């Protein structure tokens, strides 16, 4: 299995160690020698706030045109438009980040390498707004016996007959992300497969 090289940066050593520890538990990722950005495919950056200084630093680093997953403690006053133009493909509130959410964001980032087009920027801004709403509280503020907005959208599309590729295109996700969302639903509710998950979601009034 080819491993994705992920470089990690953080403003404090505890955050750095935590992010590295989370990513190292997944065999599909590895840190490049010396944790160097110029040898990575994705960057993960943890900061207290998305300040102008932070954004300027990202823009300077973007000579390598790497997608950036950013973990931010305080999203108030953040400028997502500028951040996206400097390569940020996901902004995650630190208080809500789990290993699963971080891994999901890094996986999605792998599919966005290269200089973003206008459509890429628009899609990334849409993802930022969605993540900001859904991750503002742990578990998106939703009980485990309900679907969060992302899961609900995917399950509705499955119920409408769309396949993984079509859902990924419409929601600007990677196909792997869609599969992970469906897997998360089937696992959490103890379901056997996709048809069982769709039938359960309809009968239980989840979609």
Automatic annotation (TrEMBL):
Domain of life: Bacteria
Record domain HTH luxR-type: where: 140-205
Family matches, as CDD domains: LuxR_C_like (cd06170)
Entry-linked InterPro entries: CheY-like_superfamily (IPR011006), Sig_transdc_resp-reg_C-effctor (IPR016032), Tscrpt_reg_LuxR_C (IPR000792)
SMART domains noted in UniProt: HTH_LUXR
One Pfam family hit: GerE
Keywords: DNA-binding, Transcription, Transcription regulation
Protein name: Helix-turn-helix transcriptional regulator
Native organism: Saccharothrix yanglingensis
